[in-house]
Amino acid sequence: MEIQIFMSRVIYENALDNESDIKDLSFEGNGEISFAGGAMRMTSAEETVLWYTKPLPADVRIDWEFKPLSDSGTAQLHFAAKNAGDKISEFLLSYYNRGLAEERSFHTCSLYKNGPENMVYKGADPMAGAAEDTWYRLSMVKRGKDVFYGINNLELVHFHDDGITLGEILTGGNMGLGQLPGTEALYKNLKVTWI
What we know:
There is one protein chain. By secondary structure, the chain is mainly beta. It has one domain: Sandwich (Jelly Rolls). Helix content is about 5%, strand content about 60%. It is built from 1 helix and 13 strands; from the N terminus they run ββββββαβββββββ. Strands 1, 2, 3, 4, 5, 6, 7, 8, 9, 10, 11, 12 and 13 form a 13-stranded antiparallel beta sheet that branches. Strand 10 and strand 11 form a beta hairpin. The longest helix is centred in the middle third of the chain and has 5 residues. It is globular and about 40 Å long.
């Protein structure tokens, strides 16, 4: 996924390779985080999210590396997330969807806006299972009304938000790396760029 970025500035970098790297992050849910081999391992007994709680700019690129350790479960990226009382205000990228039998036989990724009932884009997911022992480079770009997501520079999602159908254009907010129950994965090299 090659997207031209001019005048960009890295505003957050985290290798995620030891416990001190997450001291300023907030972990939510029932799960475990450990470190080995220069990466963070997250195991989820229920839905878990590791939040970066400082607000992000409206136009942002988030890069991270991901390696699945389980052939079931679901990994997620929350972004443009804001506290909106009893309403959900965020984008949710659901990738490595392997929770259901049909998801394990036909791999897809999905983008949701303001709640899991509002899927705005569904694309292919080329990631293999845990047995392949492979790291993937993931990227999400949110610029203006557009959201892009890709793996290893291959674009998989491009959503153009009209700012009407599911509410106003989402800006700022927080981001978090999340997992659903039964998911185990490694993460490293999280980077956030203001674009």
